[in-house]
């Protein structure tokens, strides 16, 4: 019996040692650089990139030029996060939704409106209306910030020499407006439309990035697989520069997380620049130093959304997040400053 026990222990020890050795081998295998060259989405400073979600939509109306000016007043190096859709006349405008019902004083799909009509009619993007399935469900309600204060364009702290486009109306803003107004800032652009419209928007965005030589400061994103497939095709066929940056949709992120859990992430070779993650999803904790540092080994940045709680902000700083996306840029900047002053 003792002999059998010793033999069993020996076999168990050999198995465990083999597993440890295998894990060590898997750990030291070099990870591929998924993004080639310098990845500007990876934070090089003590603090993560301050990313203004929709310009900071709890301080000023979502995806308006004025909201982005407000974020710029907080930190002139702020990274700007925006959502885009293409209009009937082929203009890429900023808007989180596919319809105008929630954020303006008119209704209807963005794809059914001409940009020229939005401007000619002075459609106001300064609303926060009740909606159901994207369509107006109640009375119009003017935007108020997180303190319940009604905001107007004239309330923004603009850079010296800049005047409001209109004192009271938040006019439609195009992606071109954003690229021209903030030529030195990093920008995250999420394509909201899907299918053929989404593909049309993708091509229009690519044209703008080419026109303004902005591939090195704009990271593109979409939750729609067909848009990500276009990105993969364009990269593979060299239709875009090597430094074109993209953040993948959910299946690609899941693939990475599963491979990482199995210590097999050296098989993850998708040519992306950044992961955009919640702190947790489906019971899986994603806000860990293990995830941020390992993604950096792949030359992939990790940005977290949408973070408005101070404790969460501090947690992400501690684990080495590359970027924190927030609706409240003033609050995040105060947290960053507390580290400098402390």
CATH class (first level) name: Alpha Beta
The proportion of residues in beta strands is: 5-15%
| CATH second-level architecture | Alpha-Beta Barrel
Q: Secondary-structure element order, as H and E?
A: HEHEEHEEHEHEHEHEEEHEHEH
Structure description:
The chain has 342 residues and is α/β, with parallel strands linked by helices. The protein has a single domain, classed as Phosphatidylinositol (PI) phosphodiesterase (TIM Barrel, Alpha-Beta Barrel), CATH 3.20.20.190. It contains ten helices and 13 strands. It has helices at residues 2-28, 65-74, 115-120, 175-181, 195-211, 225-236, 250-261, 289-297, 310-318, 329-341, and strands at residues 49-53, 79-86, 92-94, 131-132, 135-136, 187-191, 218-221, 245-247, 274-277, 280-281, 284-285, 301-304, 323-326. The strands form three sheets. Strands 1, 2, 3, 6, 7, 8, 9, 12 and 13 form a nine-stranded mixed β-sheet that branches. The longest helix is centred in the N-terminal third of the chain and has 27 residues, at 2-28. It is globular. The termini are far apart.
Condensed summary:
This protein has ten helices and 13 strands. By secondary structure, it is an alpha/beta fold.
Topology:
Layout: H1 2-28, E1 49-53, H2 65-74, E2 79-86, E3 92-94, H3 115-120, E4 131-132, E5 135-136, H4 175-181, E6 187-191, H5 195-211, E7 218-221, H6 225-236, E8 245-247, H7 250-261, E9 274-277, E10 280-281, E11 284-285, H8 289-297, E12 301-304, H9 310-318, E13 323-326, H10 329-341
